[in-house]
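Worked example 3 (structure in, sequence out).
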């Protein structure tokens, strides 16, 4: 009689640890930080804290494209919502690779999230 790997006779079930105590879990090293700026710093992207009222292409620690630096945009809700629908159409020549957010509710929710932080990452 052949024994297949899925048959119970092939390998008896043995728990990997006593059933009373599961293995201890190490804290994750990839846990998401609390503020958007810390996330973006880890990913090598420009900081978005304090975006409301800031000129485009001026956040420290990131090399913006010339198109973004010279766009003349000062971020506010209207500019952001227009930009986030299609970034390449709003600033031709930008190096941002993002198709945009077409859904207005999602775009408004994103602006509300970003606008709640001041330049230091604290909620207003």
């Amino acid at each position: 009689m052949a024994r297949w790997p899925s048959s119970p006779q092939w390998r008896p079930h043995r728990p990997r640890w006593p059933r009373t105590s599961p293995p201890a879990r190490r804290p994750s090293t990839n846990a998401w930080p609390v503020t958007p700026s810390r996330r973006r710093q880890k990913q090598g992207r420009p900081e978005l804290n304090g975006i409301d009222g800031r000129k485009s292409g001026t956040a420290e620690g990131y090399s913006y494209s010339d198109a973004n630096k010279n766009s003349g945009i000062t971020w506010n809700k209207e500019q952001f919502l227009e930009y986030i629908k299609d970034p390449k159409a709003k600033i031709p020549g930008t190096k941002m690779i993002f198709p945009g957010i077409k859904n207005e509710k999602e775009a408004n929710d994103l602006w509300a999230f970003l606008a709640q932080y001041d330049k230091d990452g604290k909620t207003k």
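Notes: Residues 36-115 form a domain with the Cytochrome Bc1 Complex; Chain D, domain 2 fold (CATH 1.10.760.10). Residues 104-115 form the longest helix (12 residues).
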